Amino acid sequence: MPRIIVTSADVEDMAHRLARRIQQFSRQAQDRPFTIALAGGNTPKRLYEVLSEGPYREEIQWGGLEFFFGDERSVPPEHPDSNYGMAHRALFSKVQAVVHRMPAELGDADAYEAVLRERVAADSQEVPKLDLVLLGIGKDGHTASLFPGTAGLQESSRLVVMNDVPQLNTRRMTFTYRLINAAQRVWILAAGADKREIVRRCLSAGLEPEHRAQWPVLGVRPSNGELVWWLDQAAAGTQ
Ligand code: 6PG
After folding, report:
1. 27 CA distance to ligand 1 middle (Å)
2. Which pLDDT value is given to residue 100?
3. What is the mean pLDDT of residues 109-138?
4. Candidates 14, 18, 42: which one to mutate for ligand 1, based on the most atoms within 8 Å of Cβ?
């Protein structure tokens, strides 16, 4: 499946383009909801806010969507670092949606994997095939909570793990490559001039294993799905 790059003028433009696509997905849902795993961090915040505002708030069929989280910090939802907390303030406190919080502070990755296996139809390898996984990218090339040099990069069987991140002196719960790469769509969001260099390096790097170890986002290669990089002009270096 080819890699697609979509460049938006800025974060606001990107948020509206993404919101329009999610609105379309919500209306396509037939016998089961369209399943979306959300990214954390700051980049997707404007998208979540846009989804909570008119016209999307009214136009989206919220019953046609079901939300998960691709990673979470080991903090309770009310903690300022919580990805769930950010998404709840931006979106889920304003709409009626089915949301599966990732309780990383409890440390039970297998329990979250069980929720995914229960709620998401599996592919031929018995891996839940999410309809859409949203990801961000750090300046070090990490994505979700798959950081350079961490054990989570080597996990080839489990779908969700608690990953020790020594560079942040913490543990985080995260999707593994096996789950991410089973998705129908994986969209990587990057915005701002501070992401320009890592985006340039990753988009120009080969697929050699050493590149994936150095920049974990390069391990995101959907086996039977689309990969789209959503960039603003500042991150794309076209501004
Ligand atoms: C997290 C995210 C992480 C994030 C990148 C980019 O829990 O922080 O899942 O992977 O997407 O760190 O973060 P920003 O969007 O804040 O630059």
Report:
1. 28
2. 98
3. 98
4. 42
Closest CA to ligand 1's atom 10: 144
- Residue 1: pLDDT above 60? no
Residue nearest to atom 7 of ligand 1 (CA): 40
Q: What is the DSSP string of the chain?
A: --EEEEEESSHHHHHHHHHHHHHHHHHH--SSPEEEEEP-SSTTHHHHHHHTSTTHHHHS-GGGEEEEESEEESS-TTSTT-HHHHHIIIIITTS--EE----GGGT-HHHHHHHHHHHS-B-TTS-B--SEEEE---TTS-BTTB-TT-GGGG--S-SEEEEEEGGGTEEEEEE-HHHHTTSSEEEEEE-SGGGHHHHHHHHHS---HHHHHHSGGGG---TTSEEEEEEEHHHHT--
How far apart are the CA of 57 and the centre of ligand 1, in A?
A: 25
Report the separation in Å between the CA atom of 31 and the middle of ligand 1, taken as the mean of its atom positions. 32
pTM over 0.90: yes
Q: Across 1-10, 92-101, 198-207, which has the greatest mean pLDDT?
A: 92-101
